[in-house]
Amino acid sequence: MIWFLLFFVAAGGGALAIQVRRRTPLREIGMFVALSLLGCTVWISIFMNRKINPTAWISWLVDRIGW
Fold this sequence. Notes:
Keywords: Membrane, Transmembrane, Transmembrane helix. With 67 residues, this protein is mainly alpha-helical.
């Protein structure tokens, strides 16, 4: 699990660096970070045998934002 986390941080940092260099809009960078963290949370829950439902989290977030 340590190697997964290190790889995730390295890949995410590299992707963010590329997005900043290409001057990607802040909104897209925020969406990338949010979905990446959600994906990481799901993977960690799988490793710990405590499966979560990301669909419920996304629907809660959309309800709070008001889309």
